[in-house]
Design a protein that fits this description.
single chain; Rossmann fold; ten-stranded mixed beta sheet; three-stranded mixed beta sheet; 17 strands; 36% helix
Length: 340
């Protein structure tokens, strides 16, 4: 499949499209492709209004709606070819304090997206996941694990419809709305005398918005349905991140927040028998059997992977790729340049 064929002339819908990912995804599509329509589906009218001032190409459409609302989703997806499901409640402590609201959006909303995609004969759907869904320790991660399972299993519910569902899982996004780097920068600009660190040994996976967008676009070409795609990305200790951003400021250890993990996992040990390693990514195969058997060792682009060893785990602590201070600062600059 040619890259240009994939999105040219297509109708594309992004749930949660006014978020950081959605904006970068739209920016990239408008630069590289010629879609027929790009539909932003989200519930915040102010964010849609502000986004429409910047992204006002003739192909842009803005639909007010919530993924909790199936009838609205069914209408919005009429004639849609490609769906990116990015809508979610993502704040870990807030999910802990408001568990049912998290479940309504992240679980029930995920099933609504699936049902609307099948009803409208959507061709391909990718749901965005998170490292917190692997061996989850908090409600947000648990709800995204359920969402992942729903999207994988949806490939058995398509009937005669030609539709594929896959999942993309990656770590923290540098500079995304609500992430730690903008928070640190805000504290620095306000003259704080120290930066808060929850735990001195904490590590995280890191990816830029553009890297995340490019990975999703590539996986629309790779996908056969049912895979969880995991990129090979670098780790960094939170203490090192704080040093890189503000080497002149001391760090204050404040303790782990509700539901927070010390290290993140993207390919769990218990899924090692399902995990295939490719050059720049991993694929976690479905644990269930589909009606039509699929060889996930060779993807739709012809890339060939190999099974990982039993007991393999891809986590932020034992990662072989680490960000240096200079690399982090360069990625932060690149992210800011892309937004301007």
């Amino acid at each position: 499949m040619k890259d240009s064929y994939m999105l040219n002339g297509k109708n594309i819908l992004i749930t949660g499209g006014t978020g950081s990912f959605g904006k970068q995804f739209v920016r990239t599509i408008l630069k590289k492709y010629k879609p027929n329509k790009i539909i932003i589906y989200s519930r915040d009218e102010l964010k849609q209004y502000e986004m429409a001032q910047k992204f006002n190409d003739t192909c842009m459409r803005y639909f007010i709606g919530d993924v909790r609302d199936l009838p609205r989703l069914l209408k919005a997806m009429n004639g849609v070819d490609i769906v990116v499901h990015a809508a979610a409640l993502k704040h870990v402590p807030i999910a802990e304090y408001n568990p049912m609201e998290c479940i309504k959006t992240n679980v029930m909303g995920a099933q609504n997206v699936i049902d609307a995609c099948i009803a409208n004969n959507v061709q391909k759907t990718i749901a965005l996941s998170t490292d917190k869904a692997a061996s989850p320790a908090n409600l947000y991660g648990a709800s995204k694990l359920v969402s992942d399972k729903l999207f994988v299993a949806a490939n058995n519910l398509t009937g005669g419809h030609e539709i594929k569902f896959s999942v993309v899982r990656y770590g923290n996004v540098l500079g995304s709305r609500g992430s730690v780097i903008p928070y640190f920068e805000k504290l620095i600009s306000e003259g704080y005398a120290s930066l808060p660190i929850t735990e001195p040994n904490m590590t995280r996976f890191w990816i830029t918005l553009q890297e995340g967008v490019d990975f999703v676009l590539k996986n629309f070409q790779r996908m056969q349905g049912g895979e969880i795609f995991v990129p090979k990305i670098p780790s960094m200790k939170m203490t090192e991140m704080a040093k890189a951003i503000a080497p002149h400021l001391p760090q204050e250890i404040i303790g782990i927040r509700p539901g927070e993990k010390l290290h993140e996992i993207m390919c769990p040990l218990d899924d090692s028998h399902l995990t295939i390693e490719f050059k720049d990514h991993f694929v976690i195969k479905p644990s269930i059997t589909f009606t039509q058997p699929i060889d996930y060792g060779t993807n739709a682009l012809g890339e060939v992977g190999k099974n990982v060893e039993s007991g393999f785990e891809y986590n932020s602590k034992d990662n072989t790729i680490w960000l240096s201070h200079e690399e982090l600062l360069q990625k932060i600059r690149q992210t800011k340049d892309e937004e301007n």
